[in-house]
Design a protein that fits this description.
Ribbon_hlx_hlx, CopG family transcriptional regulator, mainly alpha
């Protein structure tokens, strides 16, 4: 059994041309490069979704900060940085 599967992706001609150019320079197939790109995109997007879900769970558990608390912390960080730069 293979650890990969085949899908069909429709790309703009310009993207296909760039992908083929990159494949030529890297001596990899355009399919391998596209597979790596899709895998990286999926991992990145799922990490964002996981972070959002963790944040929502924290809010439901009462662990979140109010808007005023967040803005207070942001203002503190900005003021400290402004003071550091002014020195």
């Amino acid at each position: 059994m293979s650890d990969s599967s085949t899908i069909t992706v429709h790309l703009p001609h310009e993207t296909t041309t760039k992908l083929e150019r990159l494949a030529g320079h890297t001596r990899r197939t355009s399919g391998a490069l596209a597979g790596d790109a899709v895998a990286a995109y999926v991992d990145r997007e799922l990490a964002v979704i996981d972070a959002i879900e963790r944040g929502r769970a924290e809010i439901r558990a009462g662990l979140g900060l109010s808007t005023d608390e967040v803005f207070g912390e942001v203002e503190t960080v900005i003021c400290k940085e402004a003071e550091r730069i002014a020195r």
